[in-house]
């Protein structure tokens, strides 16, 4: 249509026929996602065309109020912002036009981590230079982008050992064609167990089963802070080809739009480093053609309960797998050094991350030097040795820092105090003695540590185990954060507990008893005795 007056008039009349949000009275969320959102988008496109026609006719001041309301209601809609900047510039309000661009840029950076599009940057440059600007022709609006399959996966690891059966089972689960719902696989476990590497390997093995794309979305930022689901949804919608100006506001509309975009598609989503199940659920596709692989340091069994997810807790590698991984990394799979490698594997807790960092320290060393390295790990600062300087992602202590920092205060304190218990095994009664709290309160802290995979649960939840590398880290935190008087008091309580067979522990009125202490006991655990407890206390400076 070349008659701008007629175009503006007819489009204005058409827009008056719009009564409100499409299908607002329909209770079906699926129907709204599939039908209402496209209708809402079509209305916005018509509104854009009508405003473009008005701008072409020089009605800059007339549309300013409307455009301010539209940018407030659709704060990430770049086309409306571009029209507002154009209208302000055409009204002789250059400073306000530049401020509008800065406002949009801040919003895009803060919420999506992106810059304004090229068209807006060009418009901004012209306003800044005081150049004349011609309005877009109404026929210039862009059609929806066609779907383009894309692979966002990082490279697979060339040297990979172990988890063969798990990989085969996961691949079979994800690509099976008779599924009626999108399969969800959650890989959980302690820091350093190789969750992300395993997820990437599984994703590459299943690429051919998802021809419409394979996306990897990180659920934490570079500092390890949780990303909001709405922010991750915006990233996923961009991957789906949705124009930034078309991304709806709010988590639920974005989740519905993503499900609509993925309907009848076959896309694999890898969601890395999930904080909890609530962060994941809005990102789950709604149709069986897609599949999801999740990694998390947390317990995601809630996804198994409500979303039929297969939740797998990764354990350390088997000792023979650890030795083979070291041999492959250090000497290309050649034989020799098996005894030293076995000791190093044991000192690394058979954790893939620790083993790979150790392999860096072993590169190019002779058999004698490998044995000396094992001795250093055994007697030196093991966590410091298992570090690649300058790379936090290759540092076990940094991984532990994140998990420890996310714990509730009581669970953090219990984690520190567990180093006073010899042997690494602990029960609810021992935890209650350490914290000087009732058993139920101690159980909550134990559960928090187990959910963060900083303790291993056994014997149907009646016993927990602190692995050696985590124990070394907990000892560091104990020395740095726990006052000496508090350490001594906790050590005495464990000592008293280990020599008592009285009733379950009752917290004393003084939470840090001195001198004789209280008699605190319960069902008992084999690894606790007063002599060992005293030895452990002395080793970390508790007298």
Automatic annotation (TrEMBL):
Gene Ontology MF, one: DNA binding
Sequence ranges assigned to domain Bacterial transcriptional activator in this UniProt record: 2-128
Keywords: Transcription, Transcription regulation
GO biological process: regulation of DNA-templated transcription
Organism of this sequence: Nonomuraea thailandensis
Region of interest: Disordered: 498-543
Chain ranges of the AAA+ ATPase domain: 181-317
Protein name as catalogued: Bacterial transcriptional activator domain-containing protein
Range of residues in the leader sequence: none
Keyword Transcription regulation: yes
Residue ranges of coiled coil: none
InterPro entries hit by this protein: AAA+_ATPase, AfsR-DnrI-RedD_regulator, BTAD, NB-ARC, P-loop_NTPase, TPR-like_helical_dom_sf
